[in-house]
Amino acid sequence: xxxxxxxxxxxxxxxxxxxxxxxxxxxxxxxxxxxxxxxxxxxxxxxxxxxxxxxxxxxxxxxxxxxxxxxxxxxxxxxxxxxxxxxxxxxxxxxxxxxxxxxxxxxxxxxxxxxxxxxxxxxxxxxxxxxxxxxxxxxxxxxxxxxxxxxxx
Length: 153
Description:
By secondary structure, the chain is mainly α. It has one domain: Methane Monooxygenase Hydroxylase, Chain G, domain 1. It has seven helices and three strands, in the order αββαααααβα. Strands 2-1-3 form a three-stranded antiparallel β-sheet. α2 runs antiparallel to α4.
């Protein structure tokens, strides 16, 4: 039986959510869905966040965690995963580049290396939580996390 929703997309979104939780970013809902007119299972995802006040570093870790979780699940490189969705103007890679562009050029490469490393460590350390949430998304499509998840650190 084919899963109702896309497993790689579910892992991607779960990576974002678990990173957000760890960073103290309040997440309300996460969803994997099929856009109108698309016939493949769950080709898009969305994380709904309230009251988003983050530093550039937190935002970058959050953005890297999704593709890193998907890459780990698919057994692919981060670069392959990031460039797969690059055409989308709202893609993680586009947002990462936008934030990095605001960081002084002398610091940019160092900051990028540091946050990617932190995101990798986070995904590795919290893989069990990512897997649990991803499998729930595969089956249900939408997970409402509510206040306890949003505020617990």
